[in-house]
Amino acid sequence: MIPEHDPQRLQLNDAGKLRHFLTIEDLPCEILTEILDTAESFVSMGEQSVKKVPLLRGKTVMNLFFENSTRTRATFELAAKRLSADVLNLDIKTSSTAKGETLMDTLQNLEAMHADAFVVRHSESGAAHFIASQITPDVAIINAGDGRHAHPTQAMLDMFTIRRHKGAFEGLKVAIVGDILHSRVARSQIQALNTLGAAAVRVVAPKTLLPRDIEALGVEVYTRMEEGLKDVDVVIMLRLQRERMHGALLPSEGEYYRLYGLTQEKLTYARPDVIVMHPGPINRGVEIESAVADGPRSVILQQVSYGIATRMAVLSMATGGQAQQRELSQSMQQENNQ
Amino acid sequence: MIPEHDPQRLQLNDAGKLRHFLTIEDLPCEILTEILDTAESFVSMGEQSVKKVPLLRGKTVMNLFFENSTRTRATFELAAKRLSADVLNLDIKTSSTAKGETLMDTLQNLEAMHADAFVVRHSESGAAHFIASQITPDVAIINAGDGRHAHPTQAMLDMFTIRRHKGAFEGLKVAIVGDILHSRVARSQIQALNTLGAAAVRVVAPKTLLPRDIEALGVEVYTRMEEGLKDVDVVIMLRLQRERMHGALLPSEGEYYRLYGLTQEKLTYARPDVIVMHPGPINRGVEIESAVADGPRSVILQQVSYGIATRMAVLSMATGGQAQQRELSQSMQQENNQ
Amino acid sequence: MIPEHDPQRLQLNDAGKLRHFLTIEDLPCEILTEILDTAESFVSMGEQSVKKVPLLRGKTVMNLFFENSTRTRATFELAAKRLSADVLNLDIKTSSTAKGETLMDTLQNLEAMHADAFVVRHSESGAAHFIASQITPDVAIINAGDGRHAHPTQAMLDMFTIRRHKGAFEGLKVAIVGDILHSRVARSQIQALNTLGAAAVRVVAPKTLLPRDIEALGVEVYTRMEEGLKDVDVVIMLRLQRERMHGALLPSEGEYYRLYGLTQEKLTYARPDVIVMHPGPINRGVEIESAVADGPRSVILQQVSYGIATRMAVLSMATGGQAQQRELSQSMQQENNQ
Question: Is residue B336 a part of any domain in this protein?
Fold first, then answer.
C-alpha cells in the first residue's frame, strides 16, 4: 500500500505535477510559479458576483484539524466550496481516536470514503509528510500548518501578494521581522523567496528569537530594525506568538515593541513604495502599530483575499495531480501486462 | 473605509433598497411589504419537491453567532442553502479573538474573504448596527437578534404569518402577551405592526415585565388578560425567558401561569377566528397550555416554515441591495472622473 | 397528526415501499434486496471522478445526533451530499432542549422547516421508532443506531459486502464473533442474514457476552472459536465495546484475546476463501490481530466504501417512499371527496 519513492519526489507525480503540498522545500520554481499563475485565474473571481467554478464538483475535501484554527479552516472551506467540492470538517481529537482507534485506521477509513484531499493542520512537525508518505499516499495531502515546520499555503499567498504588487521577484529585498524561532510561516517564506529568485531575504529579530542555524537557510541576519529594513521592498511582520513562548526569551512586550514593533517611524527606513505584510491575526501595539497596519503601505487584508485564491489553486492542482497519477499507474500496469 | 451616512438611511442603499437588515425601526412600509411579497414567492417552494433556487449561487453567507442559538442558526443556514449560497458557520467566541485579535480585525478578515452577508447574533444591543456602520458596511448585515434591542427577521416572519392568515393589517387588533421587558422580539413586532398599519397593538403583562416608556412605542397597555385579549384577531405569546430573569420580578411560575398563561378558557375572550402565535421555543404549562399550542387556532409551526421563506427574502434582498450599491458607487465615480 | 397503522407496516408506505428505515426486523426480503441493488448502482460512483448525482437536489437531510459518532455522521453527511441534498448537522443535546423545550417540539419545529429526512442516532433503544410513529411520521426517519436495539444501515452495508464478495446468500455460513450482548450491530446482522437466506448464522462468544434468549433469533451458538469458525464463508468480528462494559463480564483483555481474538492461526479453521469483516473502529490486539485486519482476507476498508453507497440507497429510497405516500394520500382524499 505504501509506494516506494524518492523523498524529494513525494510531492510530485510521475509526470512532475503537484500531488501533495507539504512544504516549499524541494519544490522547483516552475511548480511555485504554476501555483501563482493558477491563483491569478481565481483571484478575480472573488470580485465577480458568481464566485464559483465547477472544477472540483463531485470531489470530496476533508478538513482534518488536529490543531484548532478557525481562520485557516474557514479559508480552506471557502476555497473548496468555491471549487464546488463537497467539504467535510472533522475534529479528529474528538473522533474515533478517543475510542482507541489508531490514527492510521482513522485516516484509512476516511480515504475509503473516497476522499480526494485531506487538509491537515497538526501541532507536530512532519505530520502531513508522514500521512502522505506512510498512510494515505493516494489522497492529496495539503499541509495547513505542522508544528514549527511549515505552512506552505500561507507562504504561497504571501508570494502571490508580493508578485501582484511588485510584478516580479528579481531584484527584490524582503525583510521578515519578529519571532523567526517559533514561526513555521517564516521557514516557508524564506524557502519560497529563495526559490522564486528574490535578491535578498533578510531576517530581523533579537538573537533569542532566531534559530541557531538560520544562515544555512540562505538569509541575511539583522538584529537592528534600522539596518534590517533599510531599502527593502517588502516587510513581512510575524505575529508575536505569545501562546508559544515558553521561558524568558523576551524582556517584555513593551521593550519588544520599542525595538521591533513596526511603527510609521521605523517604516521610513524602507523604500517609499514598500509593502507591509502580516500573516494575521495581528497584535496591534505588540508587533505592529495600528497606523501602519491600517495605513497606505499595508496589504494585510489583500493577503486574506489572495489566500482563498491560492488555496483554490493548490487544491485543484493537487487533486488533479492525483487523478493523473492514477491514470499513469493504470496505463503502466496495462503495458506491463501486455 | 467608513462611509458617512444619515443614520436613518444606514439600512437602505442610495436607490432606497435594503442593504442591511438591522431593525424594523426607520424602515418604510414599502420595504416591509417588499419583504413580505418576496417571502410569498419562496413560501410555496417549501412544499415543492425541489426547494432550491439559484438566486445566491456563488455568494457567501457567514453565520456569526456570538450568542448560541441552534434553532435560529439552522433557519438561516437552510435559507441560505436553499438560495444556493455557500454557507460558513463561525463560532466567533472560540475563534481568533481568543488570540488577542480585535473584533474589527476578525470581521474585516472575513470581509476580505469576499463574504456577501453576515448573519449576526450577539448578546449586546446594537452589535449588528455597530458592525454595519463602523466595521464592514459593504457586507450585508442581517441582525439575528442583538441583546434586548431587536430581532427583526422574527418580527417579519410573524408579520408574514399574520398577513397569510388575515389577508391585511388594516383593522387588526393584536395582543402581545408576556415578558415584554426582556423581549427583543416584542420591540420589533410592535414597530412592524405599527408601520404596516395594524388598528391596535396591545401589550399584556404584569407591571414588573413592562418597560417604563412602553406607551411611547405606540401600544395600549393592559395588565389583565380578560381585557387585553378582548376581541383581538391575533395573540402573540412571548416565551418566559427564565434564563434572563434576574431578581424577583415574578411571584412564581404557577402564579404567572394562572394570571398570564394562555389557556383555552382565556382564549375565549378573543375573536372566534383568532390566531395564536409564539416565537418558540415554547414552555408548555408556563406561558401556554398544550391544548392551545397544539389546538386549531395555533399557527406556531407555520411560523417556523414561514421563517425560512422570510429569511430567504431578507438575505436575497440585502445582498442584492449591496450589489446595486456597488454599481451606483462605481457609476457615480465614473461621472465624477469625466 | 399521528396516523394509525399496523406496527409491522410502519417502515413501508401504502404501496409497500420504504419510507422509514428503523430496523431490519419485519422488512421483507424484497426490500432488503432493493436496498442492495440500489447501493450497487451507487458503489461504482465512488471511483468516478465526479461522485455526485442530483437525486436529492433541493431535499433537506438533517443529522440529529443525540449520541456522538463522528464516523457514522461523516458517512451520512457524505452520502447526503453526494445525492446533492442540503445537509444540516444538529447536535440536539446543546440545542433548545436545554431551554426547556420538549423533544417533540424540537423535532416538529425541524419538520416545519421542511426536512425530508432525519438521520437519528440515540443512546436509547427505540428512539428512532418512537419519532417515526409518534412525532414526525411524514419525515423519513433513518436509524443510525439506537441503544442496544439496532443499527440497520451498518447491517445492510455488511450484507452488501457479503453479496459483492460471495455473489449470493444461499449456502453461506456466517460467524459473528464477540460482544453479542451489547451489540446493536449483531442483532441487525442476524435479522438481515436470516431474511436474505443465509444457510447458517453462528454467534461465537463467551456466555457472559451472550443475551439469554439468543437462540430465539435463529442462530447457532458457539462458545469456542475452533468450532464456531469451522468452514465458515464469512467472519464478522465485533468491536469489544470497552466503554459499554459495566461489571466483570470478562476475565481480562489478554484472556479475551487469547480465546476470542481473531488471529491468523484461528482463521485457518474457516474456509480458505473466507472474508473477514468488522464494523470498526477496530481494537488491534484486542479482538483482532493486525496481520488479519490488514491481511488478504480482510474486507474491512471496503465495508467503509460500501457504507456510503448503502446509505445513499437508504436515503434516496426512504425520501422517495415518503414523497410517494404524500401523493397516495392526496389521491385517496380526492377520491373520497368525489
Answer: no
